[in-house]
Amino acid sequence: MTDAIAAKRPIGLAVTLIVTAIVGFTAAFALTTEKFHLLLNPEATLGCDISPLVQCKANLESWQGSLFGFPNPLIGLAAWSMVLVVAVALLAGARFDRWFWIVFNLGTAGAMVFVIFLIGTSVFVLGTLCPWCMVTWSATIPTFLIVTLHNLRTGTIPLPDRARAVAAAAYGWVPIITLGLYLVVAVIAQLQLDVLGRI
Q1: For the whole prediction, is pTM greater than 0.85?
Q2: Can you give the residue range of the structural domain that contains 127?
Q3: What tens digit of pLDDT does each residue of 133-148 get?
Q4: What is the CATH number of the domain that holds 123?
Q5: Number of domains, the chain
Q6: CB 18, CB 151: distance < 8 Å
């Protein structure tokens, strides 16, 4: 990464990752607490169970809610903790090798794929909108976008100069792109679940 962009401390990236990590960790912690509550009392109504449409219980009790044999929120607790550590290190001036950024990007890409799977499961299979799950989704999307665009614009992921310029321009639009993706999810949920008609 010999580009001048790569030489600068990525403060915007670090601050964004700190915010998304705190939001994501909070959601994962809340879901973990709710899962423990459900394990202790399977008949319990959870604090995030607002209606048949807006609830956590169906998601937590589904097989998709423990895809790897343990509750998904535990993945969130570990993953968001790692994102927070990386973000604080960046803010403090740490520099990471190319291999680290690629592995970190693969992790965020894996999280994005997992979130897309969970959105599809929630909307098309379970027919629910889990509040804390949606908070997790809302944190994962910008995390993936900003890390990927950072790696593209700095040349960590090699691209032709024109493509790097596009990535550099898109980097400043991450909040708008994120809102656009939120809107896509909202439209899909509305078309499938008639959210507005059921509120």
Answers
A1: yes
A2: 4-198
A3: 999 999 999 999 999 9
A4: 1.20.1440.130
A5: 1
A6: no
